[in-house]
Amino acid sequence: MTRPSSEDPAPSAVEDRRARVEASAGEVREYAARVRAEVASELDRLVPAEAEDPPAVHAAVRWSLFAPAKRFRPLLVTAAGETFGAPREKLIKTACAFELLHTYSLVHDDLPAMDDDELRRGRPTCHVKFGEATAILAGDALQTLAFQTLAEDETLDASLRVRLVSELARAAGTPSGMVAGQAHDLAAEARADVSGEELERIHRRKTGALIAAAARAGALVARAAGVEVEAVNSYAHDLGLLFQITDDLLDVTASADDLGKTPGKDARKGKATYPALYGLEAARRRALEVFGRAAAALDAVERPTPMLRGLARLVLERRA
Question: For residues 213, 152, 222 and 318, what is the CA-based torsion angle, rounded to 10 degrees?
């Protein structure tokens, strides 16, 4: 029997290094493609066909929901849940609920009264294609279907479904969720006195709240321990901020073909963004710092987290 030499690493050190392994870009892309396909299939089952009454609303829902999309929030639900041992079949409806609610937010965010955008996910926005009134109704339908999907998920027990409904509602609303972030974002337009602290608060609510809730939801479905849920929450809290910082950067540096939406709109509308407040290079340094914090938060999880780490790297280095 081979005896370990004095130079061999201790078992705990080996396990620690394994826990910090990061999935490669190829592995993340392959994983993402599989999850996207499963989410698309389940969404197709959950969402009424265009022919169902009222057809205009269902056509608008499907136009917005099945446009080419990253499905980042569903990816976080499944990656977090599978980290703690949940099977995909117990995660898929929760993943879909987060995508339904996220898509509703995009439909309403694009409206003339909000960001007044004409391009989303590489195609005309919902209100451009179907009219403003139908777009509002489509967003309403997407939002309510998100909660219906969680409430009727019979693969989960009733108490967990109630917890997930609460998590999604808190992340989507006020006082510290997405709606609050959108309100503060609109209020900060064309203001020259937006501070770094205020900007971070806007981003953590507008984008980060739903991202953090998606990761928490996956861990909750997996019945992760309280300390594990907290570690994942800390990771995703910074991941959400990182996502918005890179979004700010891409609005300045990417093309419409890359983004699938209109670039440069933040600057034209006087939006509070990291490049506007700090400049491009400082914003990039801030992104690296936040990425490091997100990765470090996963050190508290006593099991391998390669996909969660790989997803953070994907956000840091994304080009669209």
Answer: -40
Q: Beta strands 119-120 and 123-124: pairing type?
A: antiparallel
Q: Do 136 and 111 touch, CB atoms closer than 8 A? A: yes
E strands, the chain, in order: 119-120, 123-124
DSSP 173: S
For residue 309, how many C-alpha atoms fall within 13 Å in the half-sphere facing its CB?
19
The DSSP 8-state label assigned to residue 274 in this structure reads H
Please tell me the pTM assigned to this model. Answer: 0.92
DSSP 213-251: HHHHHHHHHTT--HHHHHHHHHHHHHHHHHHHHHHHHHH
What's at 288, amino acid-wise? L
Angle at 182 between CA 62 and CA 193, to 5 degrees: 150
In a 3-state reduction of DSSP, which class is residue 12? Answer: helix
Rounded to 5 degrees, φ, ψ at 275 are -60, -40
Closest CA to 141 of 68, 215, 43: 43
Tell me how far apart the alpha carbons of residues 27 and 232 are, in angstroms, rounded to a whole number.
21
pLDDT band at 215, cuts 50/70/90?
A: very high
Residues 87-141 pLDDT 10s: 999 999 999 999 999 999 999 999 999 999 999 988 999 999 999 999 999 999 9
Q: Residue 185: is it exposed, middle or buried by C-beta count within 10 angstroms (0-12/13-18/19+)?
A: buried
pLDDT tens profile 21-45: 999 999 999 999 999 999 999 999 9
Indicate the burial class of 119 (C-beta count within 10 angstroms; 0-12, 13-18, 19 or more): middle
